[in-house]
Write a structure and sequence with these properties.
Blueprint (H helix, E strand, L loop, with lengths): L12 H13 L6 H4 L4 E4 L4 H7 L9 E4 L16 E5 H7 L3 H19 L4 H7 L3
Parallel strand pairs: 1-3
Antiparallel strand pairs: 2-3
Length: 131
């Protein structure tokens, strides 16, 4: 669990955003056309409401979330707002203090949430080793 503002962030917000940008640049070329409509934003921590809504146990951290309707579930007859990926800086920096570990986990988080955009559920991501 986090303690909100009392937890010091290790890096500047801009430095962390650069890690997210690097993760996006490392994505396979086939995924890139879909990113134009999919914002990826950084927030410090997930809200209590989001954690409750997701049913996340108190001893687990949320590194990222895809908010939206996965592509396979969309109905072309009913246009919707694009989804978005949110990457949570606080728990990532807290759990991965080493720069290379943090860089790797940010990339894994972005890929994991992008997979949800494509409709791949957590169970399948676990099978693939992306859980």
């Amino acid at each position: 669990p986090h303690f909100g503002a009392e937890v010091a962030m290790f890096r500047s917000r801009r430095a962390f955003e650069r890690l997210v940008e690097e993760a996006l640049r490392e994505l396979p070329e086939a995924f890139r056309p879909y990113l134009g409509e999919l914002p990826v934003v950084v927030e410090d921590w997930a809200s209590e409401e989001l954690l409750d809504e997701m049913g996340l146990p108190e001893d687990e951290d949320l590194y990222g979330v895809y908010l939206g309707t996965p592509l396979p579930e969309r109905n072309p007859a009913y246009p919707e707002l694009p989804g978005r990926i949110v990457v949570f800086r606080g728990p990532l920096e807290e759990d991965f203090p080493e720069p290379e570990e943090l860089r790797r986990q940010v990339t894994v988080t972005v890929l994991h949430e992008l997979a949800h955009h494509f409709g791949i559920p957590d169970a399948r991501l676990e099978e693939l080793g992306w859980g």
